[in-house]
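pasting input
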Amino acid sequence: MLGLNHYLVLAALLFCIGFIGAVAKRNAIAVLMGVELMLNGVNLNLVAFDRFGNHAEPLGQAFAVFIVAVAAAEVAVALAMILTLYRKRGNTNVDDLEGLKW
Amino acid sequence: MDFSAIRLELVAALIALSLLAVGLIAPRGKREMTGYIAAIAFLGLLALAFLAPGHGSSFLGGRFLNDPLALFFKRVFITAAFLVALMSLRFTAGLEESRSEFFALLAFSLVGMMVLSSANDFLSLYIGLELMTIPLVVLTAYDRASGKSTEAGTKYVLLSAISSAVLLFGLSLLFGASGSLAYGDVAAALAKPAFGPASGDPLAVIGGVMALAGFAFKIAAVPFHMWSPDIYEGAPTPVAAFLAVGSKTAGFAALARLLFFVLPSNGGGLSLVVISLSVLSMVVGNLIALPQTNMKRLLAYSSIAHAGYMLLGLVAASRAGLSALLYYIVLYLFANVGIFAAISSFGDGGRSGEIASLRGLWKRSPFMAASLLVCLLSLAGIPPAAGFLGKFYLLAEVARQGKLWLAALALLMSLVSISYYISVIRVIIMEKAEDESRIRVPIAQKAILALSALATVGLGVFPGPLTAWTQAIAAAVLR
């Protein structure tokens, strides 16, 4: 029988894997994928707390839907930025961003 | 529903949309006017914020609160947006095709800041935060000719996405610990002995710390500060000014509400986290600022240090602490806007911002040099500029609460900071320029410089009215 803790552990794992990916990956697109994993961890947390808690309104689910929508907007801007970067230098490697001291 | 609570936000969003429309309608060659329209509109919004702000009302069942604290911050943000719009007139002069979007994004970001300062619920907090950040990212990368600007925009969007994911994870844990998203209910649930941070409930403690980390990124507190020097240097100078005064102040607005009303930091482990953020920011910010050769990077590190001083107001967690923080925010606004306006009036529009380019400024433009001097002295905390009193209020309150070592450390670090501000002043006054021609300061920049210098000296010499106002706000908000 799956309980709240199973979901919380999975969410924490997702979040950690995403964080490691976001921090360690060299490709900017891969960093974004890491961020998406982190956000999915958050969403799983919210929905699980909502399902197992005793709430009159589905607040957690509502929050998760908002996160999905806003994250889409954020990713759109980030991809546009990465595209500009690619046109300027021909790669999307975050380690090469050395024009400014990182 | 009481729409008077969101009156200012509605008008600001309307301004943003109208600016977009103006860019489409206005004939080619006449589009310089969008900048002036934006500045005038922000001035009108500021008047509205003072004359008919919709005091004390709330929206969506208290999820959006227009209390005196939020109103104070909104007035600060609108003032910042007005001054930045004036400052941007010169930068946007070269952007025939994308000028109106620049000012529209500025207005959208302003709406986000205002929502953030009014947020009384995790959901509105998150929406406000992203509405502020996403336009700022685009503005940071606006200087398409410069590779640095694109690079700064990419760094900003990636790092802020990571930081908001961390913040959200913290909020989701707080939601799990309390079963609610509204500040009032969360605070009530956390105050129960079975839960509260003091009792060591892991969900509440980890959630609180992660939420703090997310906002520490926004206010650029050490160790979450790495982004700010790069982004200040790469971003167009007016945008860097808006990041320094707008985005940072908005972070403090949200942080103040969280720490005062949701996560009672007194006694719990969270106050230790806030103290360490403050100490690290003061020490690291001031020490790394010492060897900087670029004015914008220097300002970034100095603003990291100033975030440390301002955090002292939250460490104090009292009426006097909050009132000192609000006073400091106003003087920080004027001093920083003044300095950024000076940088942006140089020949290249402040793209490089090397300190060496300030050589002999005293001869090249005495007016600019004098206003720059006043603003630098204010940040250094030398009387009669306002910075001295601001630091005095903060340190006196921390010392009064028995944290003498913290006050002493802040004093020591502010003495260290004098040395790098003075070295900039030395470059302005003593060193000789290779090119001694006069600098023609654009009229808008002149107005900003004059206003910042006057406000800085005025607040230092006559602190009475502003202090009375901030104390009244603190008394009204903290019972």
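fyi The CA atoms of residues 396 and 407 of chain B lie 8 Å apart.
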